Amino acid sequence: MVSREAAQELEEAVAWYEKEQPGLGSRLIAAFEHAALLLSEPNPPLVPVLGNAAELGARKLILHRFPFSLVTVQHDQTITIVALAHHSRPPDYWLGRLNP
To answer: How far apart are CA 95 and CA 44, in angstroms?
Structure first.
C-alpha cells in the first residue's frame, strides 16, 4: 500500500528526473516498483530507521541507483509506504505521517 503523500513524492520526483533526462523518470518508476515488490517477500531487505520513528516501527528500503528510500510501517500483515524520502531531506520530515 502506498500513502497519498508517498505517491505525490514519487510523481514529483518522476517529473523532475524526466525533465533532467528523458527516460530517467521511467527508470525511477521501475526502481520504485521493484522495491515495492521486494516488500511482498517473506523477509524484505528493510533496515530500521533511527530516532523517534524507530519506536513507531518505521523501517526503510534503499532504492537502487537513486538517492531515495522507501519509508515503511507495518500494521498486522500490511506494509505501507509512507514516504519516498530523498536522502538530502531532513531524516524525519515524514514523521507526522505515522500513526502511533
So the answer is: 22
Digit-coded pLDDT (tens) for 51-87 = 777 777 889 999 989 999 999 998 888 899 999 999 9
Which of these CATH numbers, 3.30.2310, 3.30.43, 3.30.1890, 3.90.1070, describes 4-89?
3.30.2310
**Distance between terminal CA atoms of the chain?**
18
pLDDT tens column, 91-100 = 888 988 886 5
Question: What is the value of pTM for the model shown?
Answer: 0.88
| Burial zone of 81 (CB within 10 Å; 0-12 exposed, 13-18 middle, 19+ buried) | buried
